[in-house]
Amino acid sequence: MEEVSIIGIDIAKNTFQLHEAGFDGAAIFRKALPRARVLEFLSRLPSCVIAMEACSGAHYWERAISALGHEVRLIAPRYVKPYVKRQKNDAADAEAIAEAASRPSMRFVAVKSADQQAQAMLLKTRELLTGQRTQTINALRGHPAEHGLVVPQGTQNLRRLQDAVAEQEAHLPAVVVSLCKLLTDEFQKLTAHIDDLTLRIRREVQANETAQRLSAVPGIGPITAMTLATLAPPTDMFRKGRDFAAWVGLTPRQHSTGGKTRLGKTSKMGQKDIRRLLIIGAMAVIQAAGRTGGPKPGSWLAQMLSRKPRMLVAVALANKMARVAWALISRGGSYRVPA
Fold this sequence. Notes:
Layout: E1 6-10, E2 15-21, E3 27-34, H1 38-43, E4 49-53, H2 58-66, E5 71-75, H3 77-80, H4 90-101, E6 108-109, H5 114-145, H6 158-167, H7 174-207, H8 209-214, H9 222-231, H10 241-248, E7 252-254, E8 263-266, H11 272-291, H12 300-307, H13 310-331
Parallel strand pairs: 1-4, 4-5
Antiparallel strand pairs: 1-2, 2-3, 5-6, 7-8
Helix pairs in contact: 5-7, 5-9, 7-9, 9-11, 10-13, 11-13
């Protein structure tokens, strides 16, 4: 067999497509393998570069293939798409992955350990249950409203809704009463699970020195700190905090040409959970300042709020928080309140 340069692997549920390219970029072979035979086949090859898209299961396969002595590179799918020639199929995808991985300027995705993926699952599970609880609350408020039972928004008003259903039980269909009780029980179960997961996340933050230092930043709580410590790539991938903020997607998208600079809306690149949590935290800082008589006169926040919309200021503040987080992770130290 010829000396292997790069093998592009298109990951699938059952059948993986492999494309082997030599040092000159010429195709050596194209092969389809069932999932169970991939590691066996790769174990018989000399050490080479294995490239895959950073999709579901890619981090597991990186750890498994690296244990065989190969160098594994993960590429964001959006960087592979330009190299797909004409028809879209698994073989074309594997070839495009191999070609993209051979580019010297290509950016690769940092590999997550099993522990990082476990922490990410903890965060994602809590987010999932929180969304389900919100759906349950909306259903619990919406369906009784069809029968004239309306209460204000907020979980603190659900008790009023339960009391209203109990008072009108004689005038409501039995199905409505039973389903309201079912939704109420579901809400309580979801709340108990969310509280338990929140407690587990707080314990993880206490055991993580980086997350503890991030929690000292205004607007960054335990959830955001754990998300940054778990889902953010290594800081050495970025030259400075601005690059990290751009990766998160908190900088304007450019449409510049002919020497004319045109800036649009935020690019929304990178990890969406980090971006969302930073913006929510920034808005919380703005709201907290409003409850205490406004930000300190002459401060950056006060000057921005005096001439810009609150949402725009929140995004700008989230950008500053991202840069502060990058500095704390990369350089160490503790957060200090600006003079």
